[in-house]
Automatic annotation (TrEMBL):
Gene3D superfamilies: Homeodomain-like, Resolvase, N-terminal catalytic domain. It comes from Pseudomonas putida (Arthrobacter siderocapsulatus). This is DNA invertase Pin-like site-specific DNA recombinase. SMART domains: Resolvase. It comes from the Bacteria.
Length: 187
């Protein structure tokens, strides 16, 4: 079985070959997968293709951790997925290598990174709560805008009491069923 050297990157320009090395270069890769910078965590077609392409023992080379992910939690998830595929993952800028055979080393590093991600989320929630409290004290915080007007809520409740289907009501008022039940419960 031939082991592959694979590059994954997020391109700055829309043209895929703008950042891909030529096959003649000494840094030639067997395959290159890429995503556009606008691709989100939920839509990473290039990364998903990479996962399908990988075989046990392959090496994935990424320029930097920042090009693999925008946040620590997502980065840890990607690293774990690649290690589970039993591949070697190299970050060039950070000079870091994660291997499946080195789980006793990689595991604690990723676990520490996950703890940092939890800390980041907690700090962000605290900061957000403090900002909301400050805005409330100033009187400028109104919360989320109501989805339905008062007249629509009255109509919704009347139709629900008349026995109309909850699914139909949710579609008619363009709200989720959860929101529908919240309005019905408030009466």
């Amino acid at each position: 079985m031939r082991l592959h050297r694979i590059r994954y990157c997020r391109l700055a320009s829309p043209k895929p070959d703008a950042s891909v090395p030529s096959p003649a270069s000494p840094d030639a890769f067997d395959a290159v997968f890429y995503d556009a910078p606008a691709d989100t965590a939920t839509h990473r077609a290039g990364f998903e293709k990479l996962l399908r392409y990988l075989q046990c023992g392959d090496t994935v080379i990424v320029d930097s951790m920042a090009s693999l992910s925008a946040n620590t939690e997502q980065l840890c998830n990607f690293i774990r997925r690649l290690i589970e595929k039993q591949v070697t993952l190299k970050f060039v800028d950070e000079n870091l290598t994660f291997r499946d055979d080195g789980r006793e080393v990689a595991g604690p590093i990723v676990a520490a990174m996950e703890l940092l991600a939890e800390f980041e989320r907690a700090a962000l929630r605290e900061k957000q709560a403090a900002g909301i409290a400050t805005a409330r004290n100033r009187g400028s915080y109104r919360g989320r805008k109501k989805k339905l007007s008062d007249n629509q809520v009255v109509s919704l409740i009347e139709r629900a009491r008349a026995g109309e289907s909850k699914s139909r009501l949710a579609r008619d008022f363009d709200i989720s069923r959860q929101t529908l039940y919240r309005y019905l419960k408030s009466t």
